[in-house]
Write a structure and sequence with these properties.
- With 418 residues, the chain is an alpha+beta fold.
- It has 4 domains: 166 residues, Molybdenum Cofactor Biosythetic Enzyme, Chain A, CATH 3.40.980.10; 58 residues, Molybdopterin biosynthesis moea protein, domain 2; 85 residues, Beta Complex (Molybdopterin biosynthesis moeA protein, domain 3), CATH 2.170.190.11; 74 residues, Beta-clip (Beta Barrel).
- Helices cover 19% and strands 29% of the residues.
- It is built from 7 helices and 26 strands.
- A 6-stranded mixed β-sheet has the order 7-4-6-5-9-8, with no helix packed on it.
- Helix 1 packs parallel to helix 6, helix 3 packs parallel to helix 6 and helix 4 crosses helix 5.
- The longest helix is centred in the last third of the chain and has 20 residues.
- The protein is elongated, with a radius of gyration of 30 Å.
- The two termini are 26 Å apart.
- The structure holds adenosine monophosphate (AMP) and magnesium ion.
């Protein structure tokens, strides 16, 4: 249960800030999916977005077949009581059907997946019969029709098997293969250009001078974008200079559907990203009542959408996952844009000041009694990137919520792309 704020004076209200859901909605309302399609092989369709609903050109399974190793026979020959002896007249293996017709008083040895021979409608498991030389003896207790998988029981011909806008997973590749598809039509991958800003940033592979640190955001962003399945264009590190920022923003917008920057969106003395965006494009909004994840800016540069992420590594990831990921999923044409949420007890006490929605880092796990619980990763600073590395979910605490005791029910947002 979420407790009321302990001390509502602790958080000054920000009148201009949008709530997280308002900001998400504004972004989703304005972005329309790509329409260009491409045909890819089944292998290459993994993780891509289906361009249209796919119907089954044939049924699966294509023929009635055995679900067990045993004997195929006519249901009418099953004994109601006592026993019955049937003559074994042949064998039906998977891929090597029995070609004759089975008459009353006969049966055929059949293996799992074997085509049900003509005349038969039932399979009796081999463990349930006594085999004699060229016959079997069956007792009572069987049901006509048992252990037969019927043609089309998985997928009927003309069934719609994959919806438009579905992110294709391993089972979808299998379903498409079971229907004989060699390729399928997917939506094109959006292109996303990104760069880091900051005079203190050094690329990995170079020595660190005093006051400098490595640029980690470009690697995190690369991972997040690659995982989503977009085309990435890494434009490196850009210094905190207006001209360089404007030039790079324009160059990025000319080659991408979405431009992402990290750092420099604050109001510090070297935070020129928002200024530069104002000069080459337009800012739609930049104040969102969340923590971490600020400052964040959303706007447009010519034909490209712009997302200015905060520099702090956790803030950058939180803003990406709350705003850029749903936006990209929409742009990719995926019908689902939002992450999955669960309601679970939190095993640790949580500190929070009322005022902003918080995305604390959590580890969702199973306790000794098999119940799902979440626990905090510990220190929640916006520069503690290891908290994201340990976490598998966000513990989402609503704006008005204050400190929570251990055992409180909390809303958990999963990281996995489902
Ligand atoms: P800024 O938003 O530019 O004021 O940056 C806020 C903090 O995030 C500063 O401590 C920056 O050094 C840090 N930071 C900015 N960009 C990156 C980056 N690409 N990788 C790691 N840390 C960064
Ligand atoms: Mg900076």
């Amino acid at each position: 249960m979420v407790h009321p704020p302990q001390n509502s004076c602790a958080a000054p209200r920000e009148d201009h800030a949008l709530s997280v859901t308002e900001a998400q909605q504004r972004i989703l309302d304005i972005i329309t999916p790509v329409s260009e399609r491409e045909t890819v092989t089944l292998h290459d369709s993994l993780g891509r977005i289906s361009a249209h609903a796919i119907r089954a050109p044939l049924k699966v399974p294509p023929y009635d077949n055995s679900a067990m190793d045993g004997y195929a026979l006519r249901g009418g020959d099953l004994p109601a009581e006592d026993q019955r002896e049937l003559r074994v007249t042949g064998t039906a293996m998977a891929g090597a059907p029995f070609t004759g017709r089975v008459k009353s008083g006969e049966c055929v040895r059949i293996m799992t997946g074997g085509l049900i021979p003509e005349g038969c409608d039932t399979v009796v498991m081999q463990e349930k019969v006594v085999r004699r030389d060229d016959s079997i003896v069956i007792g009572p207790g069987h049901t006509p029709g048992e252990h037969v998988r019927h043609a089309g029981e998985d997928i009927a011909q003309h069934d719609s098997v994959i919806a438009a806008g579905k992110r294709l997973g391993p089972a979808d590749l299998g379903v498409l293969a079971s229907l004989g598809f060699v390729q399928c039509e997917v939506l094109r991958r959006p292109r996303v250009a990104f760069f880091s800003t900051g005079d203190e940033l050094r690329p990995v592979g170079e020595p660190l001078a005093s006051g400098c640190h490595y640029d980690s955001n470009r690697y995190t962003l690369y991972g997040l974008l690659q995982q989503l399945g977009v085309s990435v264009i890494d434009l490196g590190i850009v210094p905190d200079q207006r001209d360089a920022l404007r030039e790079t923003l324009l160059r990025a917008a000319a080659q991408a559907d979405i431009v992402i920057t990290s750092g420099g969106v604050s109001v510090g003395e070297a935070d020129f990203v928002r200024d530069s965006l104002g000069a080459v494009g337009e800012i739609h909004f930049w104040r969102v009542g969340m923590k971490p994840g600020r400052p964040f800016a959303f706007g447009r540069i010519n034909q490209a959408w712009f997302f200015g992420l905060p520099g702090n590594p956790v803030s950058a990831m939180v803003a990406f996952l709350q705003f850029v990921q749903p936006a990209l999923r929409r742009l990719m044409g995926e019908h689902r844009t939002q992450a999955y949420h669960l309601n679970v007890p939190c095993a640790t006490a949580l500190k929070k000041s009322p005022g902003r929605t918080e995305f604390q880092r959590g580890i969702l796990q199973t306790d000794a009694s098999g119940r799902s619980v979440v626990r905090s990763t510990g220190a929640q600073g916006s520069a503690i990137l290891s908290s994201m590395s340990k976490a598998n979910c966000f513990i989402v605490l609503p704006a008005d919520c204050g400190d929570l005791p251990a055992g409180s029910l909390v809303d958990v947002q999963l990281f996995t792309l489902l």
